[in-house]
Amino acid sequence: MNPVRSLKSLSSLLAAMAAAATLGGCATGPAGVLPAVKEMGSFHVGGRQVTLAGLPEKEIVYSPGSPPQRLNPNGDFSVEQMYARYTRLEQPKGRVPLLLWHGGGLSGVTFETKPDGGAGWEMFFLKEGWDVFVSDAMERGRASWARYPEVFATEPVFRTKKEAWELFRFGKAYATDPAQRTAMPGTQFPLAAFDQFTKQSIPRWATNDATTQKAYDEYVEKVCPCVIVVHSQGGNFAFNAALKNPSKIKALVAVEPSGSPDPDKADLTPLRGIPMLWVWGDYVGEVPFWRSVRERQDRFMAALNRAGGQGELLDLPARGIKGNSHMMMMDRNSDEIAGLIQQWLKVRGLSR
Amino acid sequence: MNPVRSLKSLSSLLAAMAAAATLGGCATGPAGVLPAVKEMGSFHVGGRQVTLAGLPEKEIVYSPGSPPQRLNPNGDFSVEQMYARYTRLEQPKGRVPLLLWHGGGLSGVTFETKPDGGAGWEMFFLKEGWDVFVSDAMERGRASWARYPEVFATEPVFRTKKEAWELFRFGKAYATDPAQRTAMPGTQFPLAAFDQFTKQSIPRWATNDATTQKAYDEYVEKVCPCVIVVHSQGGNFAFNAALKNPSKIKALVAVEPSGSPDPDKADLTPLRGIPMLWVWGDYVGEVPFWRSVRERQDRFMAALNRAGGQGELLDLPARGIKGNSHMMMMDRNSDEIAGLIQQWLKVRGLSR
After folding, report:
1. How far apart are CA B253 and CA B257, in angstroms?
2. What is the domain class of A37-45+82-347 according to CATH?
């Protein structure tokens, strides 16, 4: 064996291996493969203990073939926590984690695989090199929920398919028969996946805002500094979380936020250091509810900027991007919109 | 430069890189890094549409600052679906995906990060090279739940901390004051993480078994052939899913299953081709409920084996592994138990 020839072949093998695996790990794989994942995990954060008393006893068989058990529903319970699942990369390009906060009547599933089977925003931002956290707000999904009226004051609200169809601007008029529904002309929402989308619906309460906020505030304390990308009902929680912990939030992207603090009452100067982007889809002016929401948000953004803030607008139709529903992270062009958000974050130095 | 000396140092560098990255990409990274992930995603499966009518209207403000909306709670709803989240590896060693099915009053979080912050079984089996699916059963977590009594027949059951403490064999007697609780002697459960564990509790129904089963059956149809590792209440669903789709389930590991089909009524011969392992923790004989469950399960396993089945027992205390609670995937020695399961699967040729 000639050591010099062996050295050459070893060198080329080494080069091939170095191409496949960058030094210190394996930062990026072939197309469709995620950057090297350091850790995936989840946790609950926030919440408190309540003690219930005076409720009557019951007898329950939990699974067929198992003996009956006497159930005393009174006692101590953990309530009002929230849930988050995270993926941390070996070599993140994002300078801080990116948190995805869902909207009303939904859970973190909003950002996972799209109802039509395509990759959602969680995957988009992971592939862009962010550590990504996806949460379920207090009362939703894996965060769990508590007895009412004993812990939550009222009964929950269940979203009908009609409300989802019309409120999320998939179409103007819902009908049980899909053939009878009217769709927004040129919609980017994959209408054939509408039924699949409605399986993501989670009951909600209209009286839990204070406790939902409290859990979000503890979540921010735990995992930030961070960037927050928030949708719809989550907007109000994110703006309030930013007011409480302005130094911890490095940017806030509000995707069609449905609420915000009252700019006539709140001092918005603490938000001055936080770049903020409002993203709006199509047909907003055609639906009275969204026209009103948009007007309020524009007033909030103007007040923020008068207070020295950094509010910016990404009006998709004005940029020539037409047909986006309220659920734009599930629309056919979801990657294009995420790409604009990514570019905006990158320009602000938040991603390498 | 002496080529022979360089060859030696290159060889050792090459060996170090080969240890960090196997040929053909980057199948395994350094300690703490996952095998290369091809795809992560989630989906809902199963369920049906229901139409509700005759319920009174309401007026609701969804988020502060947003206009009030008139709510008609009647209409079409998607109900009774279940949820699964998966991680597929670039180069899986498991010959089929491994599905983790949780128990009663809990969700897929059971298998994620442990309440004490350690890595759970999802991570263990991913690092062993399996494509891993973690689901939330119908009515739990991200699967969502439906109105009662209109869709679900009864009201839900909320688990008290006392029930969790005593039923899961962390200790014999719960007290609100942690200092007053009695723990099982030598328990492997991290008692300091008990409150964190109870945040994982999810309300359950005692009257949803048929629809839960239906969703599990559709889940098996969609993602199997597979291996199922099932816990507690999930056991009955997994045994029944195996009876319906025996060719799709390559092995079934039942971790303290609480129920199963009645061996005097069910024909168990379809299960003959499926290796099955029952795993039992400690203190089972000391708690009347579990003593009774264990007796029934032993009878079921014996009936299975009389029918030509392949039921095997992994009794941890009999193997000298002491102190395991019902939540053994969260116990301090959870990796040791998962390792025994992994070894059992490997011996059966299900993992390379």
Report:
1. 9
2. alpha beta
